[in-house]
Amino acid sequence: xxxxxxxxxxxxxxxxxxxxxxxxxxxxxxxxxxxxxxxxxxxxxxxxxxxxxxxxxxxxxxxxxxxxxxxxxxxxxxxxxxxxxxxxxxxxxxxxxxxxxxxxxxxxxxxxxxxxxxxxxxxxxxxxxxxxxxxxxxxxxxxxxxxxxxxxxxxxxxxxxxxxxxxxxxxxxxxxxxxxxxxxxxxxxxxxxxxxxxxxxxxxxxxxxxxxxxxxxxxxxxxxxxxxxxxxxxxxxxxxxxxxxxxxxxxxxxxxxxxxxxxxxxxxxxxxxxxxxxxxxxxxxxxxxxxxxxxxxxxxxxxxxxxxxxxxxxxxxxxxxxxxxxxxxxxxxxxxxxxxxxxxxxxxxxxxxxxxxxxxxxxxxxxxxxxxxxxxxxxxxxxxxxxxxxxxxxxxxxxxxxxxxxxxxxxxxxxxxxxxxxxxxxxxxxxxxxxxxxxxx
Length: 441
Known about the structure:
By secondary structure, the protein is α/β, with parallel strands linked by helices. It is built from 15 helices and 14 strands. The strands form 3 sheets. The protein has an 8-stranded parallel β-sheet. Strands 1-2-3-4 form a 4-stranded parallel β-sheet, with helices on both faces. Strand 2, helix 1 and strand 3 (55-61) form a beta-alpha-beta unit. Helix 4 packs parallel to helix 8. The chain starts with a strand and ends in a 9-residue tail after the last helix. The relative contact order is 0.08. Residues 115-122, 162-174 and 215-230 have low confidence and may be disordered.
């Protein structure tokens, strides 16, 4: 395998754009003590290296893993335990690096590293008691503070159990390690069973309080009173290694007739006629009528984590019921030519923004436009609406007996549909987004 070194003098720079093209190689990444402030860049690069099917070797300058704890946890998440400490960066030479490449971490080394996270299980009871106390006091801010403070402990707890269970099952391990890990598994499972009921109740109460808090904080409440999602950050494509060439973003303020079928048929036009590799992501809340989307699969964090490859790389249509930033980042850094986002969350924040994002507003009334334009710079030519709202907008016409049409006829309905002023709706979006200039994969 080829070898690459990042972070030493006269080695590859962390910002070198060629790193994204490295595949099936040994990649040694050195984190200097004076660069630990740049954790985000290292985190993104390690994830890119591992997901590109490379073997990552992490060397940290310092005397404790805690100085780069987030990076260590990321490596452990991908079952990559090639993590080493050096007190002085100057001891790293070719011979030292070759020795790391030639070896694999021992079971004792792995269990020592994982053990630092396993010890957190003794804190679970206290965490749950704190959660229950804040829930009883209806202390939303206190609840948020506890969850944020213990995020790593909670999220890595089950990962540690799964690792130990896997380790115990390996018949080649030494007897003393098997006995030690078996005792830890038994201890943790006993603790987990004792607290599982309290944990489930706490999580249910947290979800109810989060939904209620979101509803109270939201300045625009949908007519049906459905709680809406507010706690997410807008992803900027220039801050990630975005491989998607065009992002078509439909942001719904209020629904209009035929908008869902238009979005799906627009996708079909791009895939079947234009031959692009396209993914459709519909964002809606868990409380909406998600059964209306069948047979499109409903994806939350659980489904995403359980089968990331299927969700990110294989499903061409999904309904996302959680604004998980890792999911949209994974999709945009994957191999899709075009991603269509249909945002039905009714939030002022966008899910994604950037120079390759072409945004259209979906709204149904003049009063909504009047209210929205005070805050947002809305181009009337970027509005998709019912017939008669604006002459400049893209208006979707009624289609008589639409449900009786064949699939090819439905495709033709939208391919040939013209707005007021004889503007072809589909062609207008394709031309605005420069889609015909894109080279398909």
